[in-house]
UniProtKB/TrEMBL annotation:
It comes from Marasmius oreades (fairy-ring Marasmius). The chain crosses the membrane at residues 66-88, 94-115, 122-144, 173-191, 212-230, 236-257, 264-289, 340-361. Residues 1-35 are annotated as: Disordered. GO terms for cellular component: plasma membrane. Belongs to the fluoride channel Fluc/FEX (TC 1.A.43) family. It is found in: Cell membrane. This is CrcB-like protein. The lineage of its organism: Eukaryota, Fungi, Dikarya, Basidiomycota, Agaricomycotina. The keyword Transmembrane applies.
Amino acid sequence: MTNSKDEELRTLQHPVQADVESVRSQQDFDGDHRSEESIASIDCVPGGQSQPLPPSKTYHPFSPHVLALLIPFSIFGTLARLGLQALATYDDQSVFPLAYVQSTGCFVMGFFLRLKGPMGDFYAPLYTAITTGFCGSLTTFSGWQLDVFNSWINAGGGDRGGFQDFIDGLTKTVFTLSLSLGSMSFGSYLSKFIEPTIPRPKLSQPPRTARISLTILSILAYIATLPIYFRLPPSFRGQATAALLFAFPGTLTRYFLSIYFNPFLASLPLGTFMANMIGTGLLAVFHVLQNMGVNASPVSPGACSILQGLGDGYCGCLTTISTFAAEIRALRTPFEKVRYVLISWVVGQLLMLLVFGPALLSGRIQRDRLCAFE
């Protein structure tokens, strides 16, 4: 009885403290809730969540500082994707190469989603550069759709039947979704332990000279892709250098579509959906052109390199699995999640069929032949 009276007395003596503790508990819950809700707008430049941002820390989505910083991170993401695919491509491989690409990009995305607040306090364009630029360019929705479709038609010419083709395509579909969502959750889980250790009040924006210098260096990085393309051996053009020319335009297109169209519907991110579908259709067209002869002659090495660069660079960066997976987690109901996945996957495969079908039926395309880069 005495203990109960003592507690009541302490509460009456310190009502403000009791209210503060209650508010803090609610803020902790709301903070986790907001971290999930904000995934739907991950391409937007963040604001500070620990305290109101002063005007000097606020950036417009199309600020030169934001757009320029997308350049080097798009290039790094493209190089990482091509590198991981090359490392994971060998005879008798156990896992399809894109599995490493998608899981790595989604892990990084999940890790930095929880750090949106601290990064907004420090330098908001850096958050957009990592998530939209690097992760969005590292992962690829169009490459996933092409990989699945190649399984349906047995593009590798393997000794197997139609049922095995179906199982192979289904495996790439289910495993890609599972790996992507699981990797993102794991990244977010690890980031959860790091976020509280970041001293947000002590974070300050980089000096103005540093920000301007970083923007100039980012623009110079894109200019440097031109001499890299022309000066390195022609064999590198189809493998990497051509893709670097088109990486930033692909990321920029996706970023514009996301900023303009994602706010239209809360239950379906139209901007990301449009980017993924446009990129998937274009990749199918480029792939068909690579495998078709012109007047009974194969495509020239120069044209083949450009087509490969458009596929790996523009389409690879225009489409994304990391943002796609983040938006799946952000949707509120299971119905919305399943609907978004099914619509995206079905429309992507239909686009592949519409582009590949006539070429395959006409016999003008060979499934197992690619044009030469040199």
